[in-house]
Design goal:
The protein contains five helices and two strands, in the order ααααββα. The protein has two domains: 14-93, no CATH class; 94-156, no CATH class. Helix 1 (14-45) crosses helix 4 (73-107) and helix 4 (73-107) crosses helix 5. With 178 residues, the protein is mainly α.
C-alpha cells in the first residue's frame, strides 16, 4: 500500500486575511478569558472549573462578545478543549516527581532490593518528566520486576501504571564504575 501526501498553500485575499486575523485574535482573547476564569475561581474561591463547565458557557459568551459572533461555536469549543489539554499537560509535569517518589517509597528498594537489579538512577528532565536509568542482570530479571513489583507499586502509590512499560533503549553493559 503506498501513501501519498499533498501539500497545499493558500493565498487568502485581503478580506480573507483580515477575517482570519480577526478569528485568531478572537480565539486568543477567548483562551485568555477562559484561563483567567479558571485562575480567578481557584485563587478567590478555591474552586476548579473544568472543561465541560466552560464548554456549557460558550454559547452565552459568544452572545455577549461582538467579535465572537462571526466565529463558529465549534471553533470556540476547540479553544476550550485546547486550554484543558494545556492544563492536563502542566499538572502532569508538576506531579511527575511526586508520583515517582511515591512509587519508589512503595517499592522499598533500599530495604528490599529487586533481584537482578544492578543499578538505579533517576532525576528530573528538562521540560518535565523523569529520566530513569537502570542496569539489570538480564532482560528476564527486569520483566519479572515489572510484573511482580512495579505494577502493584504504581497502584498503591495512586498513579496509573503505563501499559507500554518498556525500556526506551537496551544496551549490553561491559563495566560499571562505582
Amino acid at each position: 500500500m503506498s501513501r501519498k501526501a499533498f501539500l497545499y498553500r493558500l493565498y487568502p485575499s485581503r478580506s480573507q486575511a483580515r477575517l482570519l486575523d480577526a478569528t485568531l485574535e478572537t480565539c486568543r482573547f477567548f483562551y485568555n478569558d477562559c484561563l483567567a476564569e479558571r485562575k480567578t475561581a481557584y485563587e478567590e474561591r478555591g474552586e476548579t472549573i473544568g472543561k465541560y463547565e466552560q464548554l456549557r458557557r460558550v454559547k452565552a459568551r459568544k452572545a455577549t462578545n461582538p467579535y465572537a459572533k462571526n466565529v463558529h461555536s465549534h471553533v470556540l469549543q476547540t479553544v476550550v478543549q485546547d486550554l484543558d489539554k494545556a492544563f492536563d499537560a502542566f499538572f502532569r509535569r508538576v506531579k511527575a516527581p511526586e508520583q515517582s517518589a511515591a512509587v519508589l517509597r512503595e517499592l522499598g528498594l533500599d530495604k528490599n532490593p529487586a533481584a537482578g537489579q544492578v543499578l538505579h538512577r533517576e532525576g528530573p528532565m528538562e521540560g518535565g518528566g523523569m529520566q530513569i536509568v537502570d542496569v539489570w542482570g538480564s532482560q528476564e530479571a527486569f520483566e519479572t520486576f515489572v510484573q511482580d513489583r512495579l505494577a502493584s507499586a504504581f497502584q498503591k502509590a495512586g498513579t496509573t501504571f503505563p501499559a507500554d512499560m518498556q525500556p526506551k533503549a537496551v544496551w549490553p553493559v561491559t563495566g560499571i564504575l562505582k
